[in-house]
Specification:
eight-stranded mixed β-sheet; six-stranded parallel β-sheet; Rossmann fold; about 425 residues; 2 domains; binds cytidine-5'-triphosphate
Length: about 425
């Protein structure tokens, strides 16, 4: 890999969490790669890491206050603006709950937050939240993360492991080596701003469970991996993503707002509340088509030699959105097939009034449910068909998002 860091101007913003003690090492690694570093500290960060250590390893003065000493003259009064102009990237590590809140609210009462507002458009901002696991998962922190993601910042999900409190959970700042490699990737993908940036994208994912009784249900093999990969890809492009998911064992992609549901009816209700406001609706869930007409309280006993289950149809969430979408809104679906794939997918595309459908076959080894790869055939509403090879679901999601971006731009012309 070429050394993308060489000659780059990087600002490291440090806020007051225990992980701040790792930042001199981060600065050292970046300096070694040939980057120019300026360090900005919040007031509370100074309690966790020494200004002197950071000044020594960065070989530069460290910035903290917006107000320079009284005897200062000239450009020091507007240092937050000149630093914003200077920076090729801004890394905030660790980002505490407090700093996330202040950044998302647009406050600017210290150097770090003021600088955040003066950065030039298109320069990567990488934010590494780090805090107690419970704090990280709190609705307020998740909301602030979603806001910042929606503005195009790259929020890196903290790692799981032992926390400063001794508890085990999510919240650890990645090691400096891993921060450097994330930054390299961000600088390499000088992706021009995506048309999805700031747009509201709703993704349904995973299976639904339809209750037979208190302990049993009807479901399917969906793992949610495809839907989660789409949510991640959309969020990385700066979209405000709401992920409505059935029961799955997956981590929420960074910056994504997650709504957990169990039944098709619950997924329907959650989705309906987003129909009007979303720009793009992507149905990646394997919604159960039917649910038991009645569900028993408690556990059904095996008293009879034979029982009959009457199933009634669930609402088709995607079709409902497709039928009522307004001009400019985009409906994207999946067709999971075992035979006559193209015909079935085309029928679903028109019956549900979709703009794009992704056909995938159910194959335990390569595509469809559970596996980590997928083989998609994308068909748009003008009949244009794109066959993708077998790809990891993350890559398949990126290809799908590329096409969605093109269609989205087209529908708005
Ligand atoms: N879908 C939905 N609500 C349902 C059923 C399906 O939103 N009740 C969405 C899925 O998320 C997917 C698309 O519709 O994007 C097609 O789903 P699929 O299971 O392939 O087909 P169905 O429409 O259910 O038809 P069939 O089961 O007859 O193939």
């Amino acid at each position: 890999m070429d050394n993308v860091l060489r000659g780059k101007n990087i600002i490291i913003g440090i806020s007051g969490g225990i992980a701040a003690y790792k930042t001199p090492q981060l600065v050292r690694l970046l300096k070694k790669s040939g980057a120019f570093i300026r360090v900005v500290l919040t007031e509370s960060a100074t309690r966790f890491v020494s200004e002197l250590a950071l000044a020594t390893v960065s070989e530069e003065r460290v910035y903290r206050s917006l107000f320079p000493p009284a005897d200062t003259t000239g450009t020091d009064y507007t240092r937050h603006i000149s630093l914003g102009e200077w920076a090729d990237a801004f890394v905030i590590a660790p980002a505490t709950a407090n700093t996330l809140a202040r950044l998302s609210a647009g406050l600017c009462d210290d150097m770090l937050t003021a600088l955040f507002l003066t950065l030039r458009p298109g320069k990567p901002v990488m934010i590494f939240p780090s805090m107690d696991g419970q704090m990280f998962l709190s609705p307020s922190v998740q909301r602030n993360i979603a806001i910042l993601s929606g503005q195009g910042c790259r929020l890196i999900t903290p790692e799981s492991g032992e926390l400063a409190s001794g508890l085990i959970g999510v919240g650890r700042m990645p090691e400096p080596e891993s921060i450097v490699s994330s930054l390299e990737k961000a600088l390499q993908s000088t992706v021009p701003s995506s048309p999805l940036c700031g747009k509201s994208v709703v993704v349904t994912a995973g299976p639904t469970r339809e209750k037979i009784d208190g302990v049993r249900f009807i479901s399917n093999y969906s793992s949610g991996k495809m839907g989660f990969a789409i949510a991640r890809a959309a969020s990385e492009r700066g979209a405000l993503v709401t992920l409505i998911t059935g029961p799955v064992y997956l981590e929420t992609p960074s910056g994504v707002k997650r709504l957990d549901v169990e039944t098709a009816m619950e997924m329907h209700d959650a989705a309906k509340s987003c129909f009007k406001s979303c720009n793009i609706f992507i149905g990646a869930a394997a919604v159960s088509d039917y649910r038991p007409a009645t569900s028993f309280e408690g556990k059904m006993k095996k008293e009879k030699p034979e029982i009959e289950l009457t199933l009634i149809k669930n609402p088709d969430i995607l079709a409902e959105f497709g039928m009522q979408k307004a001009p400019g809104q985009l409906a994207v679906g999946f067709a999971l097939e075992t035979h006559a794939g193209l015909d079935n997918a085309r029928n679903k595309l028109s019956a549900k009034n979709l703009d794009l459908i992704a056909l995938n076959f159910f194959d335990r080894n390569t595509s469809g449910f559970e596996v980590d790869t997928n083989i998609l055939t994308l068909i748009d509403n003008e009949g244009l068909t794109t066959e993708l090879p077998q790809l990891p679901k993350d890559d398949a999601a990126d290809k799908l998002l590329d096409l969605i971006e093109q269609l989205y731009v087209k529908t708005r012309q």
